[in-house]
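re: the backbone from monday

yeah here it is again, tokenized this time
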């Protein structure tokens, strides 16, 4: 039962065909370059849908999702101290708790800086349009 990757792909290709065709049909009406027809090359000239409603809709939805997933100038997550650990820190001193919260806040900023530095926002926007 050791299927190679190629044989597994060919076996499951018929299952995904209807979904891929639906995606291609939708793409032709919105942004044709997102899901090109099978066999299209990168230099292929795509048909222009002579309206922009579909493309604007896809871009607006992707932008709204991107803003909710990665809001600008604010972390999309928060590190918090476990309540059990808070009790232990309170028992030690009030300064220990504030230092731990400051360290977590610094880590949040570091992660956000890394996300911005790697341009994850651009790749995520393309993925959301898909």
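seq for it, each position gets an aa:
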């Amino acid at each position: 039962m050791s299927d190679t990757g190629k044989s597994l792909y060919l076996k499951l290709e018929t299952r995904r065909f209807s979904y891929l065709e639906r995606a291609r049909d939708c793409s032709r009406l919105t942004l044709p370059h997102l899901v090109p027809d099978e066999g299209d090359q990168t230099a292929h000239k795509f048909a222009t849908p002579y309206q922009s409603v579909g493309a604007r809709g896809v871009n607006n939805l992707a932008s709204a999702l991107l803003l909710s997933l990665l809001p600008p100038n604010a972390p999309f997550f928060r590190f918090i101290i476990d309540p059990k650990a808070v009790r232990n820190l309170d028992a030690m001193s009030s300064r220990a708790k504030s230092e731990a919260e400051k360290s977590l806040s610094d880590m949040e900023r570091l992660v956000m800086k890394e996300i911005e530095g790697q341009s994850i926002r651009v790749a995520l926007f393309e993925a959301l349009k898909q």
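Helices lie at 5-29, 53-69, 83-92, 94-117, 120-129. The CA atoms of residues 10 and 80 lie 47 Å apart.
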